[in-house]
Task: structure prediction
Amino acid sequence: MIHELTDRARQHFSTRKIDAFWIFEEPTTGALFEGGLVTENKAITFEINAKTLEVFEKNEEIL
Result:
């Protein structure tokens, strides 16, 4: 399941150059998993729904 979530999240952010990427192995609530990534100048946190594979961007911070 984590592999599918990772593939979908990477697809969602495919227009960005990803330097680091992670998804936590346990859901926060129900089917929602938290994750994040670092690009050249931003840190982005997101949630992904394991049932629908929908990605929700939560926060974007300039580094």
